[in-house]
Amino acid sequence: MDQSSKFPVTASRSTAGAVVDIRALRHNFGAVSALRAVDLSIQAGEFVALLGPSGCGKTTLLRCIAGLVLPTGGEILIDGQPITHTPVHKRDLGMVFQSYALFPHMTVSDNVQFGLKMHGVRGGVADRRIADALALVQMTDYQSRYPAQLSGGQRQRVALARALVTQPKALLLDEPFGALDAKLRESMQIELRRLQKRLGVTTIFVTHDQQEALTMADRVAVMHDGRVEQFDAPAKIYNAPSTPFVADFIGQTNRFGGTIQSIANGRMNLRFDGGEHAVDVPAAHGMAGGDRVIAMVRPECVRVGVEATAQKDVTLPGTITDTVFAGEKVSVYVQTSIGVVVASLLNPTRQGSGAMAAGTDVPVSWRKDDLLIFHH
Amino acid sequence: MVAIEVTNRSDGRAALTGLPRLLVVYTIAISVFLIAPVLIVMIAAFTSGDFIMFPPGGFSLRWFDQVLSDPQFIVPLWNSVRLGIAATIISGLLAIPAALSLVRGVFPGRRWVETFLLAPLSLPTIILAIGLLFFASRIGLSNSFISLLAGHVIITVPYMLRTVLGVYAGVNREVEEAARVLGADRWRTAWYVTLPIIRPGVLAGAIFAFLMSFDEVAVALLLTNSDTTTLPVSILSYLVYNYDPAVAAISTIQIVIVIVALLLLERLFGIRHLMFASQ
Q1: Measured between CA atoms, how close is B191 to chain A, in angstroms?
Q2: pLDDT tens digits for range B107-134
Q3: ipTM > 0.85 (yes/no)
Q4: Which runs of consecutive H residues, i.e. helices, occur in chain A?
Q5: Regarding the domain with residue range B71-277, which homologous superfamily does it belong to in the CATH classification?
Q6: Which of A54, A88, B75, B181 shows a CA-CA span of 20 to 30 A to A297?
Q7: B259 close contact with A: CB closer than 8 A
Q8: Predicted structure pTM score
Q9: Do A95 and B177 touch (CB under 8 A)?
Q10: So where are chain B's domains?
């Protein structure tokens, strides 16, 4: 499937994309702050996902970069040049919209040609670049069709070709796969990622789908309430969330209240609410004795039953209240003295389903290192 | 359309109780009621006799001959066409930019501007005509082509605005944003993207506007003189003293002009409109 060798012109543009710097960017809609001092440094050729719930400001941030929204304050730099007040049409960016936003009155190739025409690229050069762009997204056979005659996935490919044909400094995508069904979305994700790597274009991708963000991006900026909560590699975001919001938003977590009882010799003693259970963990920065904390643990880090007794870090007796079958894994809900603990188990039927029936008394446990502790 | 639907339903044997049959009869009756007077006038125009009668007494084109060589009709006909085209173009120039900013713009009083521009729809044209007559004579423009044109522009702007607003409000703004990100400034976005997309609305509005102007009596009655008189006015004043088939002939010509204009627009623009209307 890799056709890069066939398209020399396209391949030759795999020059590194631009560096995008966002500094203390703010935006207010009336009294509502959509962005509160956002800082992001995006490297050349990097694929960054802006991830967050709706209303977190991710789309506003993207539209500020595109120039479709004028920020209230702060700066945007592309390759060191401030573009905060550069009009949209002079920014040399590519953008793919959730609605595809193809020009309905133009054929596929006219759609792709539009950006070249606006940049004054004509004649043979333009024809070659249109052909390359269409080949890149495998839409060559559809070039004389109108958007209304294409399927959702095909429209998305055309939108991508249209955004890339002008060789933009950066590619911006606003929930581009939101309207596609799950199978198609996955194949488009793989395709986009492959294309992006090959072209080396700096890419900023807005999504509310954490799976999409984690699988595609080099780095993920998790946004919440107009702020970037954490900007890190996907594995870091998942394994070492820096705020309770990130821990909560990404994946599933068990969340417990607790109190720091004492701190000594670089260790702190954490007691969970509602029980006498306490655990010694490495002291976190800025914590003091008596502090209220939130302790979290991922369901897949929790062991249940026989497996639980092998691990001694945190072990609690409990009773199974529910098991929820979800294909390759099963969620087991266990009532313990510190609250309900959810464990996510892989293929537990092998262990005999009777062992996980509701009402069974089982121990649950997890390792100290798997605890995520945050200030309350 | 309704008749076909009804027959389909009765084909389904669900209810041949006579109600659908009644509906068919009703539909035909209404259609006849609406179209028959027009058809009768058109047919009567081909009479060879000296009076309007139906069925016509013999076939001839003498009345067409007569009206087409009679400056009493030809000058007003030309005036009406000129006036209709001018009013359509000017109301387009006013209404299209207005619609664009009313749909996309965020400015105080937006609703008021829209209401103001659409207000002539609900204003009796005779009131408008009287007002214009006083105003035009006060500023020394009474009975000029300009004041007549102004009156017709006021009447036609709402029709243009309505249809363009309707189409443009349904256009995804991301399409225009995409054009701008691709390097088109606002003017080029409007020219290459917005206007082609709203063309169906513009054309429908233009047809409405032209027909409204072509057919308008009240303003024309008060604001025309013998040089600028329009076809409806001249037909009206001819009818006061005459009852010969010349009126039927000129009316037929008027109807044919409208039908030809509609067919031409449909032929030129309708097909491509249908092509991407499904989006």
Answers
A1: 12
A2: 888 889 999 999 988 889 899 889 988 8
A3: no
A4: 8-12, 58-66, 108-118, 123-136, 152-164, 182-199, 210-216, 234-239, 244-249, 306-310
A5: MetI-like (1.10.3720.10)
A6: A54
A7: no
A8: 0.80
A9: yes
A10: 5-44, 71-277
